[in-house]
Amino acid sequence: QKEVEQNSGPLSVPEGAIASLNCTYSDRGSQSFFWYRQYSGKSPELIMSIYSNGDKEDGRFTAQLNKARQYVSLLIRDSQPSDSATYLCAVNKRGGYQKVTFGTGTKLQVIP
Amino acid sequence: DVKVTQSSRYLVKRTGEKVFLECVQDMDHENMFWYRQDPGLGLRLIYFSYDVKMKEKGDIPEGYSVSREKKERFSLILESASTNQTSMYLCASTGSSYNSPLHFGNGTRLTVT
C-alpha cells in the first residue's frame, strides 16, 4: 500500500463547476497535510495546508481533513481554466525527522 | 519571501560523469530535501538533511550522495551518472515545525546520455 494515494486522473470539469480532489494516506501518525499545485514544467507551489479535522477555506479553495478515515480532500469552487494543473497531496508525520511524502498527483483539466 | 535557488535549470551530462546539483535557500531553514520527479511516479525523496553535516536517506538514495557543509546549501551528487538518472530534480527547504510547508526551487532537468 502506498503511503499517500491519489487518483491520477485526468479529472475534467467544466468552467465554473466544483472540482473535488481526493487523497488517502496510510500512516495514522500523519499530522500535517498539504496541497500543492504544479503547472507543467514548473515546480510545485503550496495551495493549502491543514492540520485539524474539518474544513479550512481560502478563497475558492477548501481543504477537508478526516483523520478517522485517513483522507484529505481539496475542493475548488468556480473552477477556471487557469486551475488546470496537477495537484499533489503531501503528508508529514510528527515525531523524528521531518519527512514529507507525496502522492503521485491528480491532473485537473478545466474545460472552457 | 522564501527563495530556494537551484544552480542549473537544464543540464546534459554523459554516462559515467560525476554530477553536482546545487541548492541554496535564504530563509535559514533547518531542513532541506532533494526529490526527483518522473512521470507516473510522482515526487520521490532521495535524501534530506535536518542540520549542517547531517543527512538521512530517503526512499531512493542508491546512486546518489549529498553534502551539507553550510546551513543554506545542500548539494546532490551523482557519483557516476547513468541514463536512468535522467529526471527532474527538485530541491526544497522547510523550517523546524512539522506544520511548515516545503518551499521548492525551480528544478533542474537533468539528461544523461
- Described by the principal axes of the CA atoms, the overall outline of chain A is globular
The percent range for strand residues of chain B is over 45%
| Greatest interface by residues involved | A-B, 26 and 24 residues
Order of helices and strands of chain A: EEEEEEEEEEE
Biggest pleated-sheet summary of chain A: 6 strands, mixed
Compute the gyration radius of chain A: what is it?
14 Å
Please work out how many helical segments of chain B DSSP would assign. 0
Distance between the termini of chain A: 36 Å
Largest sheet of chain B: 7 strands, mixed
List the helices and strands and how they pair.
The complex is a heterodimer of chains A (112) and B (113).
Chain A: E1 4-6, E2 11-14, E3 19-25, E4 30-38, E5 45-50, E6 54-58, E7 61-66, E8 71-76, E9 85-93, E10 100-102, E11 106-111
Parallel strand pairs in A: 2-11
Antiparallel strand pairs in A: 1-3, 3-8, 4-5, 4-9, 6-7, 7-8, 9-10, 9-11
Chain B: E1 4-6, E2 10-13, E3 19-25, E4 31-38, E5 42-51, E6 54-57, E7 64-70, E8 73-78, E9 87-94, E10 103-104, E11 108-112
Parallel strand pairs in B: 2-11
Antiparallel strand pairs in B: 1-3, 3-8, 4-5, 4-9, 5-6, 7-8, 9-10, 9-11
